[in-house]
């Protein structure tokens, strides 16, 4: 008998197994049963802890990747980075960057492609 559980930890699919065939061959039936019960209990506890950690990680990941957080990061990037550098690094027009930096254009009203590029740079995913 082998118990197997699969779940996601972030974007990674994790499978854990409870192998019940690892007990010594020289033990009696009572010791085997006791081993299986303890093994199963330990397995259940471990799986429950991993599932809780996975759930917490998923919730954190959702918050960190939310649109509001990404807009905040882009605005911070625009604040601290010179127009010339942003234009050179991203290929976005000087006018667009100047309007975003000055507040004449809101992040919400920019094209999706422009926002996506700015998100990548503001998160350090793209390097100059």
Write a structural description:
- The protein is of the alpha+beta class.
- It contains five helices and two strands.
- It has helices at residues 29-64, 67-80, 83-90, 94-102, 112-122; strands at 2-9, 12-19.
- A two-stranded antiparallel sheet has the order 1-2.
- The longest helix has 36 residues, at 29-64.
- The protein is rod-shaped.
- The model has no long low-confidence stretch (mean pLDDT 81).
Integer-rounded radius of gyration: 26 Å
| Order of helix and strand elements from N to C terminus | EEHHHHH
Mean pLDDT: 81
Strand content: 5-15%
The DSSP helix count reads: 5
Low-confidence stretches: none
Query: How does the overall form come out from the CA principal axes?
Result: rod-shaped
Strand order, sheet with most strands: 1-2
Largest sheet: 2 strands, antiparallel
């Amino acid at each position: 008998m082998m118990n197997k559980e699969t779940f996601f930890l972030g974007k990674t699919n994790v499978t854990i197994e409870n192998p019940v065939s690892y007990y010594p061959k020289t033990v009696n039936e009572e010791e085997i049963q006791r081993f299986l019960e303890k093994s199963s209990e330990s397995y259940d506890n471990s799986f429950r802890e991993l599932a809780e950690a996975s759930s917490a990680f998923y919730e954190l990941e959702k918050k960190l990747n939310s649109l509001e957080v990404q807009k905040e990061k882009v605005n911070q990037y625009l604040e601290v980075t010179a127009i010339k550098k942003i234009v050179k690094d991203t290929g976005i027009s000087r006018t667009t960057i100047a309007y975003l930096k000055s507040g004449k254009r809101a992040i919400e009203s920019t094209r999706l492609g422009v926002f996506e590029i700015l998100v990548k740079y503001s998160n350090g995913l793209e390097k100059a």
